[in-house]
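explain this:
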Amino acid sequence: MLSARTDTREEGARMKYITFTVPCYNSEAYMERCIDSLLEGGSDVEILVIDDGSADRTGEIADRYEKMYPGIVKAVHKENGGHGSGVNKGLELASGLYFKVVDSDDWLDQEAYRKLLDRVRKFFGGRDQFEPVPDLFVCNYIYDHLEEGRQRVMDYRNIFPDGEMCNWNTIGHFRPSQYLIMHALMFRTEVLRKSGVKLPEHTFYVDNLFSYQPLPFVENILYLDLDLYHYYLGRDDQSVNENVLMKRIDQQIKVTDLVARSVDLGEVKKRYPKLAIYMMRNISIMLSISSIHLLLIQTAEAEKKRRRMWQRIRVHDKGLYYRLRYSTLSGLTYLPGKLGGKITVGGYRFARKLYQFQ
């Protein structure tokens, strides 16, 4: 851990390469591990610890870090609004050139973090003003079952060239198990603001919107084959837990609908055909997850919600509906009859076991 800083005027005047936003709600048990992993960046970064109306010692811990690391850590206290509200507040306050969200129970690998920050410094340390800079950094993330001693690294080696600038027209192809999630991405702050992305409050799964809506605004991409982000899995109350997903299915449906409406894929296709294919597949994956969990609930009301979810897509964009219904994975989760439902759930169980995503 870094030593406490005393010259707040000098620290506050430095350029911040990265703004890390750490949304926290009753996070006292694990937030220190997260914040400590970010301090390696020193005065080149800012760490916004967003206390989202916590009822435990989260706010007190945030204040302590701000006092220990003035000019680096800032404690932000706000009324409870959910994870998306915390991200929105971080983006509103961010002064860094790049913006990254780190959930309070996750952490960064120190060696990979140093290498990432070194690359960012090189782009802004005396470069030619006409040299392009990345709008988006992509790094690997790790599904970390910490208590069980299991990890699974998710990389993008088949999609992006390591360490070389590319764009959406020069990328490779995504495998079925690959998609861009918040934990793999670090956007230029200016790009996020230009995209107009704003996450709904009191809603889970909003990271899907964050990692989708800004993509067409990205021109230059730099992938670093670094295992950077540790995505902790294991808490019973996590939003990716299957039982929790079923309880929060209405929020999952809401976010799926927001994602489907956030971007005109026809316009994206004109400029970035490969990106349009990926983004349609992303919607397909979200529809599949919602459809499957509605099937798992096994009630007449859940089946009505599943039909309404698909109908909204059809009303919004009939062409998109038919592509999703008949030419993507999501169509396989909307098979007719009880047999179709059993086939869908069986395939889902197999995928969970294969990819170990929970």
About this structure: The CA atoms of residues 325 and 331 lie 4 Å apart.
